[in-house]
Design brief:
five-stranded antiparallel β-sheet; 12 strands; four-stranded antiparallel β-sheet; alpha+beta; globular; 25% helix; single chain
Length: 247
Amino acid sequence: MRSLPTRRLAAVALTAAASVVALAGPAFAHVTVNPGAAAQGGYTAVDFRVPNESDTASTVKLEVNLPLDHPLASVRTLPLPGWTAAVEKAKLDKPIKVHGNDVTEAVSKITWTADAGTRIAPGQFQEFRVSLGPLPTDTDNLEFKTLQTYDNGDIVRWIDESKDGQPEPAKPAPVLKLTKAAEGDGHGVTASPAANGGSSDHAAASGDDKSDDSTARTLGVVGIVVGVIGTAVGVLGLRRKSGGSAS
């Protein structure tokens, strides 16, 4: 026998493809920041995208912790029907200068709590929009450790640090990547926060130019699956051709 039977070959191909998708699937459900990138020194608006991962419980609270080692002087939430946002501030160990003024405190946490009758149900997701700025110029990313609470009491802690060159942790904290401001951009401000926290065209362009990790991962998985299926189809074709010639 010169090759595997047709049925066995097809089964192997389908099993391999299903395994790749199954392994990659959970990564698609992370809490993320969108867009995933913005220019240093500017203002931007981002969405914290929160998927509901449970099949039996609903998300009713979200806590986003803002980094105080790189404080943000201006933080505003966009009203979201059915949710109440509470903003907490903390004193800074060292004041920062913003537009020539000393800023001694910054937002340390934002908590969204679902009103009665509101939830993120199984199979759904929600986006929580925030305007931020000025973005720091002394770091390449901002990490937002996040807690997701379900109505059955379970709490998912999205707090693990992602490190370059290492496998992604099980529960990575949402990260906003910071890029150098474009030359000739004057004071390096991305854009003033739009009314009600709307994002600017410049901020959107920054997000489009630099794909986030989830997009890259998705494309990689699709490529692998297509490659596996393509190989199987090619081999099956040769098998059929060989069988036809022999007859």
